[in-house]
Design a protein that fits this description.
The complex is a heterodimer of chains A (215) and B (240).
Chain A: E1 18-22, E2 27-32, E3 37-42, E4 49-55, E5 58-62, H1 65-72, E6 82-84, E7 90-97, H2 111-117, H3 128-139, E8 152-154, E9 177-183, E10 187-193, E11 209-214
Antiparallel strand pairs in A: 1-11, 2-10, 3-9, 3-11, 4-5, 4-8, 4-10, 6-7, 7-9
Chain B: E1 8-14, E2 19-24, E3 29-34, E4 41-47, H1 57-64, E5 74-76, E6 82-89, H2 103-110, H3 115-118, H4 126-135, E7 148-150, E8 154-156, E9 162-164, E10 173-179, E11 183-188, E12 205-210, H5 226-238
Antiparallel strand pairs in B: 1-12, 2-11, 3-10, 3-12, 4-7, 4-11, 5-6, 6-10, 8-9
The chains are: A alpha+beta (215), B alpha+beta (240).
Chain lengths: 215, 240
């Protein structure tokens, strides 16, 4: 496995204009202004941070996983990746990354997909797409289920193999690893800090993450 | 597999570069045939009765531990149900991770050619063509998700690098999709955005709809993996 470009950030956490801890299973939604930087810190390691971005001026223009990976020619995200919208706009750029690889093909868990991937009784467990919905409904402004598109799973490792297979592998993150994104336009950031209890990638133990914002 | 002509409900050749849609009822199937080789047919599937339920690429891939569509697999909705199952496939690899062309990718590859210049030979792109077709069903930008690009192979190496594989689909290659629930199929035959062919040369695809009526219990896609067994149960329960 090739580790992409690791890059540390010069930004000082003491100078951040906002800092919050999002517990596992919680959602978070907020406007990030053009020029601001968002850092997501994997506090305890191998946590999946399911994230979607929207053009703040037009929610129908939103993060597009397939346009992003096709235009950069690689299925994994790391330093330098430009996150493209469905209309071809650059929403954010990954400006620093001490983890090295982030997935955007594995999607977020849901009650319904859990009933397929795991024994059917796993339907009744808290899941990312319910968290996304709760965040969208809290934000209001007409946002609903149709806003739940293919997301980024920060700190997740979902290897794609040349023979057309995909797997969920052990994470490559560790406590304190982070990814940092510079907003290239005003964006809404929607996060579900994944509560998945059925997947070995987080050792069946979802944990909190820290979010920092700099002007 | 040969289709019994008595079971055929509809047949038409869709020219390259165009869009159309079809309501594929449960128990009927759609064969896509690449008439000349090198076609690309982008397809998105929606629950015909509730189009907020739609084809979900990530759920499809992770339920079946695949990164492309092929014989035996199923195309899942975001609600844990199977929209269409891939009954047969003479091609072997259909891309679902790289999206469709848009005005910028067309301009980069081909330049532009307007209707005023070229009449119906003007350059059309997948993004705009799919949106036009979605709008006919009251759907819009918020409903446009990653499609399956039938007949196109995008290889991914160990480092994650993506590349277009030429010659994946030869003349006569086909793929058979059975609707496991009433499914709105939205189609676009524009060239794939990673196809390096310098000329804008979209290829025609034959559409054949027939009454396949293969019961879920007898569908070989059901045993593709244990996850599909549960996916079929979810789907059958929904259609009761």
């Amino acid at each position: 496995m090739t580790i992409a470009t690791l890059k540390e950030s010069p930004l000082d956490p003491a100078a951040a204009v906002a800092s919050t801890v999002v517990p596992a299973g919680e959602h978070w939604i907020r406007l990030i202004r053009a020029g601001q930087t968002l850092r997501i810190v994997d506090l305890e390691g191998n946590q999946a941070v399911d994230t979607i971005f929207y053009n703040a001026a037009d929610y129908s223009d939103r993060y597009s996983a397939v346009d992003t990976i096709r235009e950069q020619g690689n299925v994994y995200l790391s330093t330098g990746s430009q996150l493209l919208s469905s209309e071809g706009n650059v929403l954010l750029t990954i400006s620093a990354d001490t983890c090295g690889r982030h997935d955007t093909l594995g999607g977020g868990c849901s009650a319904e997909s859990n009933s397929v991937r795991y024994p059917r009784e796993k339907r009744y467990m808290h899941n990312c797409r319910d968290s996304f919905l709760a965040g969208l409904l809290a934000w209001g402004e007409g946002m609903d289920k149709r806003e739940i598109v293919h997301n980024i799973n920060f700190f997740m490792n979902v290897p794609i193999s040349p023979d057309g297979k995909s797997t969920f592998a052990d994470g490559i993150s560790e406590p304190g690893k982070y990814v940092e994104l510079r907003a290239e336009m005003d964006v809404i950031c929607l996060i579900s800090n994944c509560p998945q209890l059925n997947n070995p990638c987080n050792a069946y133990n979802p944990t909190p993450v820290q979010l920092l914002i700099w002007d | 597999m040969n289709i019994d002509p008595k079971l055929i409900l509809f047949e038409e050749t869709m020219p390259g570069g165009w869009n159309r849609s079809h309501l594929l009822k449960r128990g009927t199937a759609l064969r896509l045939t690449d008439l000349e080789g090198g076609a690309n047919m982008a397809a998105i599937f929606y629950n015909a009765h509730n189009p907020t339920e739609r084809y979900n690429m990530p759920d499809t891939l992770k339920a079946q531990f695949i990164s492309c569509i092929g014989k035996g697999c199923a195309c899942y909705s975001d609600l844990g149900r199977i929209l269409v199952s891939v009954l047969d496939d003479s091609c072997g690899w259909h891309d679902t991770i790289s999206g469709v062309s848009n005005a910028r990718t067309n301009e980069r590859r081909y330049g532009s050619r307007s209707y005023q210049e070229a009449r119906n030979g003007y350059y059309r792109n997948g993004h705009d063509a799919l949106l036009l077709e979605l709008a006919k069903h009251g759907l819009g930008k918020r409903d446009l998700v990653a499609p399956v690009n039938f007949f196109t192979k995008i290889a991914v190496d160990e480092t994650g690098a993506m590349s277009f594989v030429a010659g994946n689909s030869r003349a006569g290659a086909f793929v058979d999709l059975q609707a496991e629930m009433d499914t709105l199929v939205v189609l676009c035959s524009c060239p794939h955005p990673m196809d390096p062919t310098p000329e804008y040369a979209p290829k025609p695809v034959r559409l054949t709809v027939w009454r396949s009526a293969i019961a879920p219990e007898e569908n070989p896609c059901r045993t593709f993996c244990p996850q599909n067994e549960r996916g079929f149960i979810n789907t059958v329960e929904y259609c009761l």
